[in-house]
Amino acid sequence: MADYYEVLGVVRTATEEDIKSAYRKLAMRWHPDRNNGSKESEEQFKDLTEAYDVLRDPQKRAAYDRYGEAGLRAGGMSGGFHHFDLSEALNVFMRDFGMSGFAGFGQAQATDRSGADVKITLELTLAEVASGAEKAVTLKLLDPCGTCEGSGAEPGSRAQSCPTCAGVGEVRRPQRSFFGQVLMVTPCPSCKGEGSLIASPCKACRGDGRLRADRELKITVPPGVATGQYMTLRDVGNVGSRGGKRGDVHVVFEVADDPRFERDGEDLYTEILVTYPQLTLGAEVAAPTVNGSVNLK
Fold first, then answer.
1. Distance between CA atoms of 230 and 224, rounded to whole angstroms?
2. In a 10 Å sphere around its CB, with 0-12 CB exposed, 13-18 middle and 19+ buried, how is residue 289 labelled?
3. pTM of the entire predicted model
4. How many Cβ atoms from other residues are within 10 Å of residue 33's Cβ?
5. Are 143 and 239 in contact (CB under 8 A)?
6. Which of 114, 188, 199, 288 has the lowest tally of Cβ within 10 angstroms?
7. Is residue 8 classed as helix, strand or coil in its secondary structure?
């Protein structure tokens, strides 16, 4: 991956406004809807947006400046970093610049049934941080309804294709903008983007296709994490409505203080009281460690 500053064409001392301005100019040039959806423009647009997303965030930018992309994967983001796909890149562009008239994003939004993400805080001891740990947590998550098997329709019936959008889940109309003629894509008003209508909703889940249930989640904590760092567990969160894929679980770490130590990154500092004769003549003293103690001469 090229240097993020080079991707956006800015210097390493660029301000947040410089970064935003450079990204907006380049993103409009390489937006897939301005380039007939070419693969080259998609790749350029994804790279630009990934660089922008890192450099506009002070925490991500600091980790990147210090360690490069490795800092985003490990020390800085603790598993929360990944390369963008096209829908994520379009989402960032829409979020920050409000460009709601692009066909590519409208289509992705109209058909997206992904479940909501879940954020949890995981408390850890210093000993668990030192060696890594396996933790089990129980979450109340949305799972597919057992009665209708997630379809949302009463057993014996099924959803029908929406007559307004012919099952596509979106309606399209041309509209002029500063890009020229673009295709406006919006969720279907009749089926709310679902593409189907349910005449007889499931009584157990009221047509949603989901019910809340307890689920145990096992989390592998890597060694060396710190308070405030997080990791993202993909596709293990709430299930989407009517067959939608699962969302993610974001695990934020909180490390309990240990009064014996002061932490600085991966290093621990402690104080040992010794007598004057021990200092002058030498001695062997016990120094605490996370899981016990060691003798020091």
1. 12
2. middle
3. 0.54
4. 19
5. yes
6. 199
7. helix
